[in-house]
Please model this.
Amino acid sequence: MAESIKILSQLKEGDRGIITELEQGPFTVQLCEMGFLTGTEVEVYKIAPLGDPMVVTILGTEVTLRKQEAALVLIQHQT
Model:
């Protein structure tokens, strides 16, 4: 299984990975409160036709994020 560090907003539907870091930004606290913590698995469930927003599954919950928010989440991408 190949793994690489990517930004969550760069992933495609069905991609998954483990959160490695959250960049500092205006939504960092809100992301942490929603469960976006280091070591947590996240999967891209759906992306809107124009690419924004995206729906991800984290801790068994579907969360909708804009690309601006998803760009703060670095993950270890698993293919």
Summary: Residues 43 and 52 are 16 Å apart (CA to CA). The helical segments are 28-33, 67-70.
